[in-house]
Amino acid sequence: MRTSFRNFAAAAALTAAAAAQAGNVGISAGSYYSPTLASALTAQGNTVSAVDWYNDSVLSQYQVYIQDGSSYANADALDRFVFNGGTLIQLPWSFTHVSFTENTAVFGPRWSGTLREASPAIDVLAAGDWLLNGVTLPAAGTQTIGREVGNEFVEGVTPVLAWEDGTALLGYRRYGAGLVVGFDVHLTTSDASPLSAAWSNQVVFNAVSAVPEPATWALLVAGAGVLLLRRRQPE
């Protein structure tokens, strides 16, 4: 019995460690790529690679893929990546230049273009959401940002933040075993004010470090329990 319990505890500990450990992150690198975000993620302990082309095999190397719309995009490969457990983070231009699949879209089309401006006020739509853990939002006008204007959340998305003009800022959706996060602030493009700020970096850190939902944990624990019971059965 003690051996079985130790096996169960070890399995649970390994599962928890695997969920909490730093990950392999790919960031799409287009014509205007800036390593600002990559440097911040590397400092946090992640392994980060700039990617100029990918397919299913390339994406399988990463736990997280950050898509910028000025770069190469393969919507079908990203769909499979998310469904199989990956986390996709969509930054500006991706949701205006890439036709994501129905299952991986977070934002709809914009009604205006890209702006470089003093940061507008931010409306919190889901106070206490896990993506906002440790995030202190900036006051209006305190930073210079680049963003898309006029895009809205699509059906099935959990909205978290919006710009004061109603433009969707931050939201996410689950698909298969994975996660898609949309974040409407330029973080990788050198022609639209890449933002190296504590609040935006923390949002991305939270997304990169996402752990399974409680239901997923329950399944993992149940699986470990089945293994324990099987070990107790006589040969």
Briefly characterize the structure.
This is PEP-CTERM sorting domain-containing protein. Keywords: Signal. With 235 residues, the protein is of the alpha/beta class.
Give an overview of the whole structure:
The protein has 235 residues and is an alpha/beta fold. The chain has one domain: 3-Layer(aba) Sandwich (Rossmann fold). Helix content is 31%, strand content 22%. It has helices spanning 2-20, 36-43, 56-59, 75-83, 94-97, 198-208, 214-232, and strands at residues 24-28, 47-51, 64-67, 87-90, 114-118, 122-124, 144-148, 158-163, 168-175, 178-183. The strands form 2 sheets. An 8-stranded mixed β-sheet has the order 2-1-3-4-10-9-8-6, with helices on both faces. A hairpin with a 2-residue loop joins strand 9 (168-175) and strand 10 (178-183). Helix 1 runs antiparallel to helix 7 (214-232). It is globular. The protein starts with a helix and ends with a helix. The model is unreliable at 2-21 and 212-235 (pLDDT under 50). InterPro entries: Class_I_gatase-like (IPR029062), Ice-binding_C (IPR013424). Residues 1-22 form the signal peptide. It holds the Pfam family PEP-CTERM.
